[in-house]
Amino acid sequence: KQVDQRRFTTSGTSDNCSGLSWLCNKINIRKHIFRGSRIPEIYMMKGIRTMKNEMMETNQTGFLALQDFDLADVMCAEMDGLSAAFERVKIPSGGGVMFEIPGENPEEPDTIKTFSAVILYQHSLNAYYQSEYQGGSNPPDCGSFDGHHGEGNPGGSCDSCPLNQYGSGKNGAKACKNRRRLYLLREGDIFPVILSLPTGSLKSFTRYLMRVIPKYKNSNAVVTKFTLKKAVSGTGMSYSQAQFAVERALSPEEYPLIAAVTEQVKALSKNVGYDTEDALRVDPETGEVMEPLN
């Protein structure tokens, strides 16, 4: 069919077909061919189908690489005697909207506005220090991996513990710090990373789970898109609040692989401990993490 030359730019792209440059190279069409010639429709359609199939193959790659990877075996073989310390994705303080994610240089993390990952596993994480926590690998005096049962001093039920009530800590905050730990796997990675959600992000995370679970059954059945927005507490303090959205559902081939890694991460999570959690100042109204103390 006759091609309208006006639709094409010098680079071979079109307002209506952003992949035209690739398509032209694929079926060996050059710009001078467009001038007054008729392009056989069969070759054009063949090129479009080829481009579509290659794009679908790329998109379907997803997490299928996990079929040749066993996290538990690698941890046993390569990290025997070492602690299971996963790298961290960090939420900034003061209302910043850029995540810090692990990069090639551990001393210079990458900063990005958004990223996508599967939530392999997530759980509450409570930590109480009798003395002011200044960071490092010292375990808390009392800690909980489920937010309900504390181990240590004082130990017992977190729900009824007076140290887990607002006003028990400095500036009206809780003496026991509550967070939500998420183990995430980004596409193309084989090792999970950890994202620790502060109190001010827990409501939005709860709402997200309430949207996901009825439709997809489990949070690890979808790829989640993570972003940040600036929020302001009632006391006028700015903080960074995590936001969540479904990017896509996992394919039937991907989900069994993710489910297997989830079980392995669950088993490893109890050995991760409380190390490398930053010492934090919290907003007395929301309990939201504001900035490091040191």
Write the layout of secondary structure elements.
Elements: H1 20-26, H2 41-61, H3 71-78, E1 88-89, E2 99-101, E3 110-112, E4 114-128, E5 142-144, E6 149-152, E7 156-157, E8 176-185, E9 193-197, H4 202-216, E10 222-232, E11 238-249, H5 254-269, E12 280-282, E13 289-292
Parallel strand pairs: 1-9
Antiparallel strand pairs: 2-3, 4-5, 4-8, 4-10, 5-6, 6-7, 8-9, 10-11, 12-13
Helix pairs in contact: 1-2
Provide an overview of this structure:
By secondary structure, the chain is α+β, with helices and mostly antiparallel strands. The chain is 23% helix and 26% strand. It has 5 helices and 13 strands. Strands 1, 4, 5, 6, 7, 8, 9, 10 and 11 form a 9-stranded mixed β-sheet that branches. The chain has a two-stranded antiparallel sheet with strand order 2-3. It is globular.
Described by the principal axes of the CA atoms, the overall outline is globular
pLDDT averaged residue by residue? 75
Secondary-structure element order, N to C: HHHEEEEEEEEEHEEHEE
Give the N-to-C terminal Cα separation: 69 Å
Helix share, percent = 10-25%
**Contiguous uncertain segments of 5+ residues:** 1-60, 275-294
Strand segment count: 13
**Main sheet record:** 9 strands, mixed
The number of helical segments is 5
Instruction: Evaluate the radius of gyration.
Output: 25 Å
Amount of beta strand: 25-35%
Helix/strand class: alpha+beta
